[in-house]
Amino acid sequence: MKGRRIRANSLRSQANPNDQPITISKSPMSPPEMDAGLWSKLPQELLERILSFLPLKNFMNLRSTCKHFKSLLFSPSFISKHSSSSSFSSFLLLSHPQCYNHFAFYDSALGAWRNFALSLSALLPCAAGQASLLSTSNGLLCFSLSNSFLVFNLLTKCSRVIEFPAYPFAFELFSLVSTPVGYNLFMVSSGSRTKNTFVYDSKVQFWRKFNGFKPILSDNYHQQAVYYKGSLYFVTPEPFSVACFVLESGKWERPNTELPRELMFVRLLSDGGDGKLYLIGGVGRNGISRSMKLWELGEGMNWVEVESLPEMMCRKLMSVCFHNYEHLYCFWHRGFICVCCYTWPEVLYFKVSRRTWHWLPKCPSLPDKWSCGFRWFSFVPELYASV
């Protein structure tokens, strides 16, 4: 033993001839520490690059760490570089009337449910009462309060309360529509003989009222307006046809397009980017859909068939809605065409790039007794989306 200690001391003397204390490095499993002073010396462009890789939850929490980070995150240079939200995940947001201020998020990039949820009352004291989520568009969420609307950006925590155009006021066909220069709130007044169209323009922060509402639109309140090339598109009840409202002029028009035959229900949606308008419809007879197909609006305003839903999936979809097609609604989400049912907790989606159909699994945190009221929305966080 004595000889071993002598050899060990000899080795230490050779490795450290000045007899300086030796620093034992930490375990490889422990995270490396970085001098706080180095962060302040990093170039701003490098800091912005690092921050762009943060997940959404970490990004939101980082704002409260210091004033420098908060100002950096919302600096014009950072917003201009990352306004496309490529650094953030996109989500399918699920709401339910039994839990009106709590929302679950499905991360469509990771293909999994996220462990965090949005509690509206904690973020917005003005929405401490029952606030209903009505619509989402390009990072903005719009809620209905007792006598106003609330437009909210989750990333920046900025919000705006927009008073109803009149009191009392009943409305239908509400839609939040983002434009390159702001957003619009669209709705049609209800509860009276004369139905007027109201449009709120965020650029001027003012309601515009348009008379002469002529088209008879579908009473499916689950389906919202579809924005396509400056107009909002709707489907009329049987015999099905397409009507549109031009946002700039405030006029209603009927496009000269003939819909496919033997349709039992019709839904419209647009991709919001490449300028494509899609139609999803159930095909059958005597009020029963035997198949469901997807069409795209082509040249000459003709509908070109893109894909058919596989037979087994079609049977399941029709069984969950019990042939009450007013419960079905559709929307676009980052390359996915989502088909949802008001009475069913799953989502059927079509991946456009691969032309494949899939079922989105049920949220594991949903109680088993929830049966009706499932409302799905596309939520793509956007830094630049101003309220």
From TrEMBL:
<dbReference type="InterPro" id="IPR050796">
    <property type="entry name" value="SCF_F-box_component"/>
</dbReference>
<dbReference type="InterPro" id="IPR015915">
    <property type="entry name" value="Kelch-typ_b-propeller"/>
</dbReference>
<feature type="compositionally biased region" description="Polar residues">
    <location>
        <begin position="10"/>
        <end position="28"/>
    </location>
</feature>
<dbReference type="Pfam" id="PF00646">
    <property type="entry name" value="F-box"/>
</dbReference>
<dbReference type="InterPro" id="IPR001810">
    <property type="entry name" value="F-box_dom"/>
</dbReference>
<dbReference type="InterPro" id="IPR036047">
    <property type="entry name" value="F-box-like_dom_sf"/>
</dbReference>
<feature type="domain" description="F-box">
    <location>
        <begin position="36"/>
        <end position="82"/>
    </location>
</feature>
<protein>
    <submittedName>
        <fullName>F-box/kelch-repeat protein At5g43190 isoform X2</fullName>
    </submittedName>
</protein>
<feature type="region of interest" description="Disordered">
    <location>
        <begin position="1"/>
        <end position="29"/>
    </location>
</feature>
